[in-house]
Hints:
Chain A is built from 16 helices and 22 strands. With about 450 residues, the first copy, chain A, is an alpha+beta fold. Chain A folds into two domains: about 1-210, Glutamine Phosphoribosylpyrophosphate, subunit 1, domain 1 (4-Layer Sandwich), CATH 3.60.20.10; about 235-440, 3-Layer(aba) Sandwich (Rossmann fold). Chains A, B, C, D: GO terms for molecular function: amidophosphoribosyltransferase activity; magnesium ion binding.
Amino acid sequence: MQHRGQEGAGIVSNDHGKLNGTRGLGLLSEVFKDERQLSHLTGNAAIGHVRYATAGSGSVDNIQPFLFNFYDGDFALAHNGNLTNAKSLRKELEQSGAIFHSNSDTEILMHLIRRSTKATLCERMKEALNTVKGGFAYLMLTEKSMVAALDPNGFRPLSIGQMVNGAYVVASETCALEVVGAKFIQDVQPGEMITIADGGLTIESFTSKTQPAICSMEYIYFARPDSNIAGINVHSARKKMGKILAQEAPVEADMVVGVPNSSLSAASGYAEQSNIPYEMGLVKNQYIARTFIQPTQELREQGVRMKLSAVRGVVEGKRVIMVDDSIVRGTTSRRIVSLLKDAGAKEVHVRIASPPLKYPCFYGIDIQTRRELIAANHSIDEIKSLIGADSLSFLSEDGLIDAIGLNFDAPYSGLCMAYFNGDYPTPLYDYEKQYQATLEEKVSFV
Amino acid sequence: MQHRGQEGAGIVSNDHGKLNGTRGLGLLSEVFKDERQLSHLTGNAAIGHVRYATAGSGSVDNIQPFLFNFYDGDFALAHNGNLTNAKSLRKELEQSGAIFHSNSDTEILMHLIRRSTKATLCERMKEALNTVKGGFAYLMLTEKSMVAALDPNGFRPLSIGQMVNGAYVVASETCALEVVGAKFIQDVQPGEMITIADGGLTIESFTSKTQPAICSMEYIYFARPDSNIAGINVHSARKKMGKILAQEAPVEADMVVGVPNSSLSAASGYAEQSNIPYEMGLVKNQYIARTFIQPTQELREQGVRMKLSAVRGVVEGKRVIMVDDSIVRGTTSRRIVSLLKDAGAKEVHVRIASPPLKYPCFYGIDIQTRRELIAANHSIDEIKSLIGADSLSFLSEDGLIDAIGLNFDAPYSGLCMAYFNGDYPTPLYDYEKQYQATLEEKVSFV
Amino acid sequence: MQHRGQEGAGIVSNDHGKLNGTRGLGLLSEVFKDERQLSHLTGNAAIGHVRYATAGSGSVDNIQPFLFNFYDGDFALAHNGNLTNAKSLRKELEQSGAIFHSNSDTEILMHLIRRSTKATLCERMKEALNTVKGGFAYLMLTEKSMVAALDPNGFRPLSIGQMVNGAYVVASETCALEVVGAKFIQDVQPGEMITIADGGLTIESFTSKTQPAICSMEYIYFARPDSNIAGINVHSARKKMGKILAQEAPVEADMVVGVPNSSLSAASGYAEQSNIPYEMGLVKNQYIARTFIQPTQELREQGVRMKLSAVRGVVEGKRVIMVDDSIVRGTTSRRIVSLLKDAGAKEVHVRIASPPLKYPCFYGIDIQTRRELIAANHSIDEIKSLIGADSLSFLSEDGLIDAIGLNFDAPYSGLCMAYFNGDYPTPLYDYEKQYQATLEEKVSFV
Amino acid sequence: MQHRGQEGAGIVSNDHGKLNGTRGLGLLSEVFKDERQLSHLTGNAAIGHVRYATAGSGSVDNIQPFLFNFYDGDFALAHNGNLTNAKSLRKELEQSGAIFHSNSDTEILMHLIRRSTKATLCERMKEALNTVKGGFAYLMLTEKSMVAALDPNGFRPLSIGQMVNGAYVVASETCALEVVGAKFIQDVQPGEMITIADGGLTIESFTSKTQPAICSMEYIYFARPDSNIAGINVHSARKKMGKILAQEAPVEADMVVGVPNSSLSAASGYAEQSNIPYEMGLVKNQYIARTFIQPTQELREQGVRMKLSAVRGVVEGKRVIMVDDSIVRGTTSRRIVSLLKDAGAKEVHVRIASPPLKYPCFYGIDIQTRRELIAANHSIDEIKSLIGADSLSFLSEDGLIDAIGLNFDAPYSGLCMAYFNGDYPTPLYDYEKQYQATLEEKVSFV
């Protein structure tokens, strides 16, 4: 699932109790470009990871899974998410003698487990899982078992599947189950720890204080359209976002154009609902990887230039509705509007299939300050002018919740809507101060 | 234009009469991954090339542009296409003392130019261009000029644009002009040689015996949808292929699904014409490059497995019309049909937006024998069974010609239709024997 | 000082309290082949290390210096030597929650320092240095100081120099001081910890229980001839070994030939004492690195074949005294004798400028079992036959002690002679069992 | 024989008439670092080459052997030496249509062979060998034979050996025969072309106008001491140079120190003759490759700093005779004198075991202008001051000729002495003008 992280990748396998690993910086195709990088990863169990940096530097030391060799056995650990009390836990641990070898959050859990005085490994894990806070989906590999655990809010998706031969597969997204031919069994629930050992699956809760708050960005942008999260197909949810958006913000035009690839579902929904033809007015250069998860602003900006082309033969002289999934800094939108106009579009009406992003995320999406969010600093009308659109509308918060259609007995039907309204489902711990500071600053994107 | 070749790439620049070059195997991002590979390519003129192997081995010696240092000046040369009399020309040249350093066709032109006894470089080039036969679009860079030339049938597209500052740009496809911000000026016509020197553009014909026969595969598969070829937008042509296909081969179904990415235009045309909803039933893994131009059958087969996923949430229990642009060996189609059925599709009706491929190409598309063409060896009904489809139809030859809509006073309105009907617009020279042999063999794909 | 280790190398620099490091597998020329690997190592203090594996695997995780980032400051650590209680210390530490990231001994000291409850960093270091046992020379870099420490026996050399500008330099061998233009100040004494901070040098003892036992292999083989250890020049000591050997084991011959490069000093001493001409009968291929420190037996054997050539024009028809520094497995000697005989030498008399190696080293030389020592398993006469020599003699233990000429009030004048007589100057701790086992096994090298 | 060239290397093998090759920039260990680079070089005949640049740039296109694929068979070619009429031949060839792909001299022979109108390949080769002028030793590999040819003066060494199984081996130096276990058969004589085919060896002369003029630099510096050239052992010749030098230029001193490694033979000769002890006062860092054959002056200067160390313990307070093989620019000598004095040497008397280098070489040693030769621009007394020596003497020309002891009926007994006296054994052709110009310029090295 390369789309979930491009900075680095690794695999650790368990060959009769001996764990072997490979990891490296870059894409999977780079890390595993050589037979030799894969050929020693033998055995009957393995965990893998792709790194999408939220915290920690770009060193190979931060690439997961982390592999530990203890006198009493090997242990490997991978983590998707972001802890909110990592900094203070790390300081406490170091003060009592712990030594960290990465600056990733992930290592903390290992120290907590090793320092726990509980009697069994299982109890030590549970104690550790109750100590870390924030968004996390962990995968652990021991000599005898594989363990997966999800935070009490279930911010990140985590699903279990099963192969025809009975083997279990755990993955962040169900699309991975399809690719390897595994049948979907069930999602890991918030606060659950599942253990696969001796060919069987055990499900336990490490806490009873749970409340679903699934990351809405997974539906909007992050996950693959062929995945289901909490039983909802991502493509269908996006198409529905487009449909509701068409109802909420109609406009007269000659065609609907989606920004490839993540907005194509929403755009086709908008077209279907509005009865305006869907056209391929933007073409993506398939040889350049996607914008959002590249590390620096400069790289991101360079990326867009080559990545998309407007199709003059399609848009010239036409009124275009351009549908995109979200606006972060606004730079990409400005460029695409300008591409379309340069190619002769008469009008460009921008429709965003999600509400305005105004607040940082502390649970695993890399938006950690309001400074980089145009909607946190400008009104919709100002944004319209900044990106050069003829009109601009966003999906409403209620529209988003309806489109996804979760049904949990929890705020926002079980979605995390903090990016849009600042209503964080947990205390922010170490980030509280940083968050308060960010609320007060205002940046002009002009 | 990485999509036109992935085997290797190079650039030669002209810095005040001194030509400097870089070339290497692999993608552009690999060849030019380092600042240093680009930083010495200074100057005010340059030619570049991506290699798509039709003839010649995978050695770096075959990567173009070729750069020659003569006592009387530097010269660089790049070639898109395939010569039909390369083998005999090479033998003749070697017999009179010529030494070749690659096994690419391209070098031949250089020998012909250097051995010509004509008075001027321009005349020597014309003589050489009249000696080579087949499909060719050449780019040449000398100390004082850039020269582009197109074969008498104009098999390959070649367009001229101009930057705001007056600089000329020549490219195989117009999409490249858009990306660099150049305005389209005109296409190079069959048999033309254009020279850019001293800031001006000169157009000459090196032969008067011309007859347009534009490669129909460029419209069907090869070119980018945002390019125009002979004034026809490729996306629009493909959409029209889909529409005519829907008229020629309708079927009752719940949704139209295109095989991403090259068939999306045709699929949306089919959907629009048939009034059956267009859905995203197949998702492409954007991190894996496209099938057709990978070198070996084995690599191609491995590639497909990871590259596409059927979206269970969309196709489960549904009757699906799967639209693809073409069928070569049939293996890809069989896999996709099977993906869709595994994901729960009730019926899969395959509609191909081009006629059956039955004959090899000798002008630059890498299909050199009928052995690898399922439609050269099996009836449509047999193919339907082999790929596991519930029904199968191809676009008719007339449908294809209508969809593209060229208007030349030439056979097939100026298209090369040889892949479908064996009607080659030129003698086959060195390939004649091989072609006759391939007509007689029959291979079973069962 | 690449000759002290070829497996890997690293440097950590201190730039105003921020430590930056680079490390990698391979030779220095490989690890630092690129400007970029060096350019970020700015600052006014730095420590470096080359890895010669005695314990720990060939992973980059074991390459030093180790760099640690703590909430209260960065810390870097490099280690030359081998601990005898590493295994039990590590187990104890892990049992109380410590996590190790390498399987090198070196990390242990860091854990001990961080877990010490002493008040100051200096006291914590001393406590840690008193806990580890065996042979060690440590270099530590903190935000404000550089610290060097030597084990209570001073097995490994460690010297302090000073640049013209007052800067201090600490190095395993004095040859490094010469290369950078530093003046030799003094050797670090057994049990000393020296601290360089605020431009000044402080010397303390962390223990009073010291007894010099300098590794005799440093004089015989390991150190560079231009270094002085404990005030004794290595080349001069080797020349003296050759002279005493000539007295102890004379033989009639036409020439003395040294095995290049480490035996040239001893050979010239033998020649000078015996008045037999010194000739270049063996030539070393300078493009192949030296045998002893390559990792596997197989690589070692392949290495010898290409590495040395006998000079037919010199040795043909002659009686040759071949002087070598030591015999480990005997394979090298057998090959060289055979090279000389193949090149026409009439007789080959082997003279070894050190006593027979019979016991493993646990303090930092990679001979950890008697199985690999021919002299632990065969008599001198048997060895003579095995290597095909016409006669064979070793230097006596007393001869070695005399040749080096140390003057400490300690057994063997302050040398460690354990390789020859099994008289280890310290308890063997974790190695005791392994050592007892090795005493009982006997292997035939026939 | 890596010592003969470090810029690049290659091998071409003949597998049943199909030639396969690998070549690359850098040391042999870099070019062939991977099993894969060697594993396809199968077959029963092969030629290899290491590049030492005299003419042509540092591009991989210039790395040999060159491999050509002709319609009538493959051909590979490697060249040691330098042609004096390369430039004019190349121009002539290009004017008649030839295309060159490297800027190395070597390719010229191939064009001449291919363009020859003689009836047989053998005759065509002979014609070509009579057309090129200067210094050359060629190795050619065809589908059915291996051919070696030596210029009419025999500037470069070239020897034939035979394996136990009857296979023939041709190599520039006899040391290579020893390493592979081949028995020396005979040297290739000036003007000879030898052909190995069908398991047999044929010797022919391509010209009768021959006159031996063996490069004296081969004896002085270039060749390995364990090689024999024209029956003379190189080490023995060097030792003799040292002995004669001691007779010609005695001086009172405490020790003789050779500059490692190429001057050790001469130094030991000087010591033996003068009865002054030979000591190891300079130590070479074996991990840094030798000076002379690195490409740029800057690299050469950097190299020396780390490469040699003076041994303070040996030279301190002593009068030292420093023996070196030659002085080119004087920078190395100045550094070594300064190293010795910094290490405490009281006096440093420099003795050079060859006459002063005053004239460029056009036959294959990379000294192409007098600007870089200190002895072409300064008197011996000036050089003494420039390098900081207490005294300086060179071997006389007669002394050199005597030391080597050739016995040919030719000027200087068959040696080329042009570097010392400008007496070139052939016309200089294309270099004549450049040579005349260099005679007139005078550069100060102060």
